[in-house]
Amino acid sequence: MVKMHFFNEVSPLLKGFIRYYWYVKGEEREPSGQILLPMDHVDLIINIGYPFFYGKEERICQLDSIHFHGIRESSLEITQPEKVEALGVSFTPWGFYFFTKQSMSQYINRIVNLNDVNHLLREELFDHVVKFEAPSEFVKAIEKTLIKCINAKDSEQIDCRIIKEFIESDGFNIKEFCEANRISIRRLERIFRKYIGISPKRFMNLVRFEESARDVMYDNQVSLTDISHKHGYYDQAHFVKAFKSYTSYAPINFRLDKPALKSQLDYE
Fold this sequence. Notes:
7-stranded mixed β-sheet; 3-stranded antiparallel β-sheet; single chain; Arc Repressor Mutant, subunit A; globular; alpha+beta; Jelly Rolls
């Protein structure tokens, strides 16, 4: 069984950029294949054990031991090796921009070697991998490296505050939010594409899917109709259509088949 542990304590200097760290370790009887679900943020993967393989058999992809997943709007197949060990950094939706200083739109639905984007950061992180002993100490070590990379201008901090406030608001009434905050819809869309990579509407639809998928996976006592209403879908048909667009599964089949990697992990 592969176990997953979360490290939720993040340095105050990184709080606006990183949500948490996670560590997975374990053994499978044989290489296993599941799907990675769509997600509203970037994950940086630091692989300490055997490599992961992404994609279908005919176009399988193996990447460098340190790589990242851009925001993903569709499911992706992953094959775990027999022995798994990796540490991940889960960023806030806008957080990874500050480690690339490039428009995040180019990384949507992509997995990219960190070396192709930030060679110096990759080399420093790899130095920590070589010295790896315990995940808690590893997190402390890489935090020091990540803090050195942060350089957020005042204007960038203002942009990210606007994004954060929009996400924490209704999130679907773009016009009302922009009028209340005296910014143009065009500006809101521009900063979303710069720091996150997709439009505000697409992003909020992705967040809604993620929240509903968690309920489908982990709360078998709640009906799918109640889940669809809870997350603001017009009706059951709307919920099913949206869910299939992200996973290729109807919610009922997703609940029964448990194809997501998340549903196969043992959380500590």
